[in-house]
Amino acid sequence: MKFAIADPPYLGRANRWYGETGCGNGYGLGKADTHPEAYLWDNPDTHKNLIQTLFNDYDGFAIALTVHSLSTYMEEIKTNSKNGIRVMAWIKPSAVPSGNRIQNVWEPVIIKMPQSRKNYKAGKSCKDVLTAHPPRNGFVGAKPIEWTNWVMDAMGVQGGDTVDDLFIGSGMVSEAITSRTLTTRDNSIRFGMM
Fold it and tell me: Is 163 helix (H, G, I), strand (E, B) or coil?
């Protein structure tokens, strides 16, 4: 089966963190790579197109997003799928304080699993909540290795499956996929960028 992990620039934050005028251009600590077209990901339609691509091209997928964009994603998902979707929570105990009164210490992760991988006998059991610190590698939005393993378990990835990392970013998701592939010799992986 064919799976994808999508960790796109977050809606409403893309140009700030990855654009030519935001932190991506060297302003502030925790700067990310600069992407001249990051502003495209601040448009909800770009995220809706991502959902369409995932439903059309993959048997299962995981999407990292913010709580603020959850309604945008779920609106598009409800027109595409009647089942197989889970919203899970990544708890970040060391989340960076923001200017908001309510500190955001979790991120939703949307999981689409194939019908044949839903049964408890179809793969490794996992919880719908992961508590893990974000890596401190100087890259905004980097995911820890345990995050990638968690979403692969939730999707039901098995030996012989293909897992595509659609947004290379810090490289940590790709590294975790590769590490898991080495321990599951039959897996094949491909990396790409949307």
Answer: strand
Cβ pair 173, 148 in contact under 8 A: yes
Tokens of 119: 């049964």
Inter-CA distances, 29 with 17, 23, 24, 54, 96, Å: 11, 8, 10, 33, 12
- Which residues, 6 or more positions from 71, have their beta carbon under 8 angstroms from its beta carbon? none
Reported as a single tens digit per residue, the pLDDT across 46-90 is: 889 999 999 999 999 999 998 888 888 888 888 666 667 999 999
Residue 165 lies in a domain: yes
CATH number at residue 160: 3.40.50.150
Exposure of 83 by Cβ count < 10 A (0-12 exposed, 13-18 middle, 19+ buried)?
A: exposed
Question: In this structure, is residue 32 part of a structural domain?
Answer: no
- DSSP annotation of 87 reads E
Record the pTM.
0.79
What is the rounded distance in angstroms from the CA atom of residue 190 to the CA atom of residue 194?
A: 13
Give SS3 for 165.
Answer: strand
